[in-house]
Amino acid sequence: MRKEQGVSLRTAARRLGITSSQVRDEEEETSDLLLTQLYRWSQALDVPVQDLLEEPECDLSAPIRQRAKLVRVMKTAKAILERSKESSVRIMAETLVDQLNDIMPELNEVNAWNNVGQRRSLDDLGRTAQRSISDDSILRAMRD
User: Fold this and answer.
1) 71-96 residue pLDDT tens
2) Which of 5, 108, 133, 143 has the smallest C-beta neighbourhood within 10 Å, fewest atoms?
3) Is 33 helix (H, G, I), strand (E, B) or coil?
């Protein structure tokens, strides 16, 4: 499911809050996951839990396959829109983004493909990890 949606191992690890090796272990066909782990995967990939429970030899359901394809197209369209300096190309990219949003409105939340830049190792912390969050705000978020 992760590969079908074009989610990298590193991105999955970051979304799940685990290491890349743990992602590989959890993806193993013989891995026995807890329900809490399945729900985390469901949220990380934005798919229903039932689609994660299908046997590996089963093909993805048509709606999930279609959604994954549209997400990849939207990422590409938004990347073109962000990076193009030519107005004619930007207009075509804007039109494509609008058309994709007409087909599937939730695609509006999809971001462009990441620029390739200096990569951090899994042990390096980004700016988000360096910000402190109070326990009270976490508890409030969990209650909401």
Assistant:
1) 889 989 999 999 999 999 999 999 99
2) 143
3) coil
